[in-house]
Amino acid sequence: DVAPSRGLGDVYKRQGGTLYKIMHKDVLYSDAIAGDADAIAALEMHADKLDINDRTILHIESREGNTEHVRFILRGFAHKNLLVKQDDQMETALTWAAYFGHTEVAKVLIDAAKHLPSSEDYNPITSFQAFLRLGDKDMDTALHIAVIHNKEEIVKLLVEADPSDTHTQNNDGKTPMYIAVDKGFNDIAEIISTTCTAPLQ
Predict the structure, then answer these.
(1) What's the pLDDT tens digit per position in 49-60?
(2) pLDDT, tens digit, for every residue of 108-134?
(3) Which string of b and e fits 123-145 if b means at least 16 CB within 10 Å?
């Protein structure tokens, strides 16, 4: 995998009249979160730059499980709409949080998605629901991914956020419930069956 946020360590800034090099991206985030305008500008410059897998800084920080960085990106760069960006495998930042079991990051991303604008057409699925139900290249949703990797807490977050989920099938024709039962993840199967209001398939 390509090293995340390549280039952030090459940012220069002025402090106390002298130039110094930021050697670690965590320092850059720390300065930005503290309100340093140069650090914020440096991060914003990289926010739209994709790595070779078309991942944004939100993908990368969600993958790494850094909740504070994720919060800052969502708040500071809301106008860039990074939340709904998909990489070359059609994965969102939420997909990565689900894959690695970063529960707090997943919660922050789900909460942010609640502020997505509603669909302007007559589709009964809101943008929030549409986001949660986005599939990757295999049509695995974040819920599929969380079930496959036995991330019980994230499954609970997702089904509670979207209890009317219609149990989307992936490209193999499998729903999250089917996968949970097939893998013997009984606790996850119970969470889905007792929380989702749509008929199970």
Answers:
(1) 788 888 999 999
(2) 999 999 988 766 555 556 789 999 999
(3) eebbbbbbbbbbbbeebbbbbbb
CB atoms closer than 10 angstroms to residue 18:
6
Contact between 145 and 89 under an 8 Å Cβ cutoff? The reply is: no
Which DSSP string corresponds to 13-73? Answer: EEETTEEEE---HHHHHHHHHTT-HHHHHHHHHHHT---TT---HHHHHHHHT-HHHHHHH
7-49, pLDDT tens digit by residue? 444 443 444 333 334 447 888 899 999 999 999 998 998 887 7
Three-class SS state of 12 = strand
Instruction: Take residue 121 and report the two structure tokens written for it.
Output: 């057409």
This prediction's pTM: 0.83
For 200, which DSSP code?
P
Task: List CB contacts of 133: < 8 A, sequence separation 6 or more.
Answer: 125, 141, 162, 165, 168
